[in-house]
């Protein structure tokens, strides 16, 4: 029975590959590679035994873990709760440069159910299931080790951008505020801007705010001696050659603030 399933998956993948190029995911037997889907996983099957994809079959879960032992390339076919189908080429690699894959809706190769023509419907800008997906992804990023993309210190306060993670149509900013000023810091706002203009030339600068679509564990106050980490999710944007990033933190009922530039 298993051989029949594997043959069916291989035939299906070959048919899809003839229509579009599939992305490749690398795995080995030393580390877990995590795949995060926008909907809970209903079924996931690999085409060869030396690739193992595990996920919670009893409780709905948005992510699965992939491991591999040396062998020929294979494929992974995954179906999510809403019927969306995802297909990837799998290859073994001794050294992995990427351990986490955040997959978006537009990476799906189709739906297992045939498309039906329906009347146009009003779609929520931010559905609750997407909020749950962002919440899970943000929680995972906060559990991962922080890095140092950019940092600014001023009068005992520190604002640090630790990660910028792109996937799908969003970018995740992992940030940290440290207060060693001796006075509690009540937050009025934290805003993200893209600034257009070459710093080496005398030219006007355009400041465009990038408004978050989701905030995770954003504090309202940082007491003296506290360290607060949180995540901003923003619509995807990419900085041009003459653009830079600016993050502005301001105090409520006070004059303190930090501007972090990158």
Q: How far apart are the termini?
A: 56 Å
Per DSSP, the total helix count is 2
Strand and helix order: HEEEEEEEEEHEEEEEEEEEE
Q: What structural category arises from helix and sheet content?
A: mainly beta
Strand % is: 35-45%
Low-confidence stretches: 1-19, 115-127
CATH topology of the largest domain: Immunoglobulin-like
Describe what you observe in this structure.
This protein is mainly β. It has two domains: 2-121, Immunoglobulin-like (Sandwich); 145-261, Sandwich (Immunoglobulin-like). Helix content is 13%, strand content 44%. The protein contains two helices and 19 strands. Strands 1, 3, 6, 7 and 9 form a five-stranded mixed β-sheet that branches. It is elongated. Residues 1-19 and 115-127 have low confidence and may be disordered.
Features:
2 domains, 5-stranded antiparallel beta sheet, disordered N terminus, Immunoglobulin-like, mainly beta, 2 helices, 262 residues
Offer a concise description of the structure.
This protein has 262 residues and is mostly beta strands. It contains two helices and 19 strands. Strand 18 and strand 19 form a beta hairpin.
């Amino acid at each position: 029975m298993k051989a029949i399933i594997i043959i069916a998956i291989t035939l299906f993948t070959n048919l899809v590959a003839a229509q579009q190029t599939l992305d490749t995911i690398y795995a080995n037997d030393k580390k877990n590679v995590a795949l995060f889907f926008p909907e809970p996983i209903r079924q996931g099957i690999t085409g060869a035994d030396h690739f193992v994809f595990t996920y919670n079959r009893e409780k709905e879960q948005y992510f699965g873990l992939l491991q591999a032992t040396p062998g020929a390339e294979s494929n992974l076919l995954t179906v999510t709760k809403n019927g969306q189908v995802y297909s990837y080429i799998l290859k073994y690699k001794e050294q992995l440069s990427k351990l986490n894959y955040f997959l978006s809706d537009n990476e799906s190769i189709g739906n297992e159910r045939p498309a039906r023509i329906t009347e146009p419907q009003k779609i929520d800008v931010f559905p609750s299931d997407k909020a749950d997906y962002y919440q899970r992804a943000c929680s995972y990023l906060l559990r991962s080790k922080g890095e140092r993309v950019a940092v600014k210190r001023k009068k005992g306060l520190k604002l640090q951008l630790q990660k910028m993670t792109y996937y799908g149509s969003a970018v995740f900013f992992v940030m940290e505020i440290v207060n060693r000023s001796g006075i509690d810091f009540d937050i009025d706002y934290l805003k993200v801007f893209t600034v257009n203009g070459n710093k080496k030339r005398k030219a006007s600068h355009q400041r465009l705010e990038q408004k978050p679509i989701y905030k995770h564990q954003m504090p309202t106050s940082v007491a003296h001696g506290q360290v607060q980490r949180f995540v901003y999710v923003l619509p995807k944007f990419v900085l041009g050659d003459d653009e830079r990033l600016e993050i502005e933190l301001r105090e409520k009922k006070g004059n303190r603030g930090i501007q972090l530039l990158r």
